[in-house]
Every structure is written in structure tokens, then in C-alpha cells.
Amino acid sequence: MTLISTSLRFDYSYSKIWSWLSKNTNGIDDFSRLFFTIVGIFAVFWYTWMYIKSKNKGKPPSPPGPRGLPLVGSLPFLQPDLHSYFAELARTYGPVVKLQLGSKLGILVTSPSAAREVLKDQDIVFANRDVPVAGMLLTGGRDIVWNPYGPEWRMLRKVCVLKMLSNATLDKVYSLRRREVRETVGYMHSTAGSPVNVGEQMFLTILNVVTSMLWGGTVEGDARASLGAEFRHVISEVTEILGLPNISDFFPVLAPLDLQGLIKRIGKPLERLNGIVDKIIDQRLNAEREIGSTAGNFKDFLQFLLQLKDEEDSKTPMTMNHIKALLLDMVVGGSETSSNSIEFTLAEVINKPEVMRKAQQELEEVVGKDKIVEEAHIHKLPYLLAIMKESLRLHPALPLLVPHSPSEDCSVGGYCIPKGCRVFVNAWAIHRDPSVWENPLEFNPDRFLNSKWDFSGSDFNYFPFGSGRRICAGMAMAERMVLYSIATLLHSFDWKVPEGMKLDLSEKFGIVLKLKNPLVAVPTPRLSNTALYE
């Protein structure tokens, strides 16, 4: 029996009773009318509840979780460091937790087996995103991070992974990475003995590498140098806000009001950033109109994307909005994540002098003290790779990855996961699981020597770059940049914290994890030949 037919029969019976009472009692007083109305409404709700219950019979139960408050759910109880707060909830309720966040439902996944179900076994189902307001403001949701799974996303992914960030392409632009890293080493050598803000310097290094790859031939001189400060301000604001709980995301009907002022806070910087990107694209288009296309000579990624846009035989054409979104993805995503990983890694190494000595010994054996580190040396430095892996175990760049959203109702860990909810995979907590990792809070690169763990995302005890279709598109670039930078910094300098200061490894949560207090350290040159610092 369907709900509609049941309700119609009840309505008919109710009207017959009402008609009989009206004729035989000379009318019903107001109280009686109210009474029968309430009874009728209650009956409709009861039939509806019974119908829904019968339809849900046999479905998996909802995951356990904190009860929360009416309307707002658990929003008032969220803590600033969401990754550690979510880990606490998992210890209380289990590996799959339900968390009501306003009108949105959040699902917390905190075990290797549950992560495998989300990222591998049901990869296509969970390949979509629940785009936050800040993400829409940044790229309109048209970029590779927030675009829903489908032909458009596959086109962007193919362009990034197979063309722009392939190993062959990265080999071609090694000279750009080398130039920027050598300039940073030269700067640090000039300030030897004085404290250096490591994160700030590495951010500018990575930013210069990324912008050189994207549009290196477009902006030169003072104009190019001025981009660093502007981009850093905007990128820091964007990544911080993307990681903050935003009322507009949990109550979409309230989004136009911007009750927290987060959209207003990044509105002007984003406008400036979009203005810079628009200007760079316009300059390139004007130059090509004046001197003609240089299709035969690969100059930078912007030129490649503009040429791709002009191809008419593509099933899913590249648009100018796609180009802008990809450029912003690489600038925002590439700079902040890689520079933070370098900063965390160097901080952990400084905190463990024996690790620094062992890494420097390996560098001396492979490179020597009369040469500089080249990327060709990296594959001969297994201990250095183990240092990077251990740093990313403790401090994954995206501690909760980028939240997934199922395209249909499904189940994970024996629990019902409804379509459209927001799924947080807590890689940070899984990487610290004491049932998998011995002394999980200790920085110990030796655990990765001769180990099976890599960055492929195939082992769900360790997946710092994610897994499945949505695995980080810039993984190859990040691995090269972080390893090359750390190798160069440790080969060129000894490092220590300034006198009277204490090294602080506390984390600050955001969609991108960073040190709570920036790493300030003193470099001391190790190489006797000053020409090696030029």
C-alpha cells in the first residue's frame, strides 16, 4: 500500500466522520474542531513515519555520532584543530562517525579499511565534491579541485597530469627549479649566522618556480618580483578560509548574508589576484596577435593552454574560465602545500640532530662537498626520501584531504552514507594509528627505509597525497620540489634555532596544514668553496 493511497483513504474517512458530527450535534465548538484537526494531523504524520520506516527496512543503520543541538547540530562544539578533534570523535564513536553540521551532514572516516571503501572500492561514487562558498568564489568550481566528476573534470585532469605535470615536462623545466633554489641558497648564504624565516623563503622559492613554469616569459623585472608579496597574502588568506568552518556552507540559505564576514575578508585580495591573472593572459594574447603564434616553441604552460583552447576538434573544449582556474589551482595549491612541507621537514630534522647528521653524511657520500646537489642525485639518497615520507606521515599537507561527496546513497563500514553529504577522510589520524605505526608520534625516518610505503595511495595506512581518481594532480611536482629543496638546504648548511628560542612543532589547522609558529632558524655554511653558494 502506497503512502498516497493510505492518506487518501484516511482523508475520506475523516471527512465522513466530520460530516456526521456536524449534522447530529448542531455544529462543533472551536475546541472540538481544534481537537479533531490535531488528531488528523497526527494520523497523517504517523502514516508517513510508518511508510518511511517500511521503505528503510533492510537498509544499513546510520553511523554513530554526537547528538548535537537542534538546528545547529555539532557546530557549536567544533574545535579549531578539526583534524585532532575529529580523531577524538573517532576514538569515542568508531572509524565511521556521523556529525550534523547545521543543515549539512558530515561523515568522518578514520580507519584504513573505511578509507579504502571510500577512495578505492567506491571511488567513482565518492569522486564528487561538496564545493564550499570560498571555493566557488575562487574559481567558480570550474577547476580540477572542485569540479564534479565527469567529462570536464577528466579533460582538466588529463591536461594537468599527462601534459603540464608529466615527468617528461618536469624534466624540461628543471632549469627553472634549479635557478630558484640556487638563488635562495645564495640569499641564505648572504645572511649566514642570522635568523632566517624558512617558510617565507621557501614559499617565495616555490612561488617563483610555479609562476616561471606557468607564464615565465610574460612578466619580467620589477613586475614579476612584485607578484611574490601579493600572491603570498592572497594564498594565505584563501587556504586559511577554505579550512575554516563557514556558516554559509552549513546553512546555504544564509550564504548571501555572509554572517562571519569570511567572503568579504577575501573579496578584495581575490579581486586583485584575478586581475593579475587576467592581465597576464591579456598580455600573452596581445603579444601573439602582434608577432603571431609560436606554436612550435614550448615557452610556458600558459602558451600551451591557450593553444589547447584553440583546438576545435576537442570533445570537451578548454575555455578561458578553465585556463584561469587551472592557473589559480597551481599557484594556490602548489606554493602553499610544498613550502609548508619543506618547513615541517626541516623543523623535524633540526629537532633531531642525529637525523640531520645522517642525512648530511649520505649527501657527502653521494654528492661530495665540492659540488652542488642536482636532481639527478635524488634517487641515490634513500635516507633523504625516508625523511620526506616520515614528515608527510606526521604532517600531511591536507590532513583531511579535500572532502568527498557521494553521488548516490551507499554504505561504508556497514553504515548508510547518504547522497550529497560531506565526507572527511582523516589521513592525519590514520597516519598516527598506534595499531599500524610503532611509536606513532616519534619522528623516525628509519621506519621508511626498505619499506613498501610510497606515495601512490595504494596502501591505506599511508596516503599523504590521497588516493584514487582524486589523488593529488601535482604529486610528481611536489615530490621533486620538496626533495630537491631539502637536499640542497641540508647539503649547503648546518641548521639550529636562534639562541634563547625553543623549536615549536605545533600545527595550525587549515585545509592546508602549517606550523603554528613559523620556523626561524640560523644557517651556517658547510661548504668551504663560496662559489658553491652563487
From TrEMBL:
**Which GO molecular function entries does the Swiss-Prot or TrEMBL record give?**
heme binding; iron ion binding; monooxygenase activity; oxidoreductase activity, acting on paired donors, with incorporation or reduction of molecular oxygen
Which Pfam families does the annotation name? p450 (PF00067)
Instruction: Identify the domain of life.
Output: Eukaryota
Fetch the InterPro entries from UniProt: Cyt_P450, Cyt_P450_CS, Cyt_P450_E_grp-I, Cyt_P450_sf
Which cofactors does this gene product need? heme
Chain ranges passing through the membrane: 31-52
Give residues annotated as binding heme. C472
The record's annotation in CDD domains points to: CYP76-like
Write the record's keywords in alphabetical order, separated by commas: Heme, Iron, Membrane, Metal-binding, Monooxygenase, Oxidoreductase, Transmembrane, Transmembrane helix
Concerning its family, UniProt says: Belongs to the cytochrome P450 family.
Q: What is this protein called?
A: Geraniol 8-hydroxylase
Organism this protein belongs to = Theobroma cacao (Cacao)
Q: Which gene encodes it?
A: LOC18606342
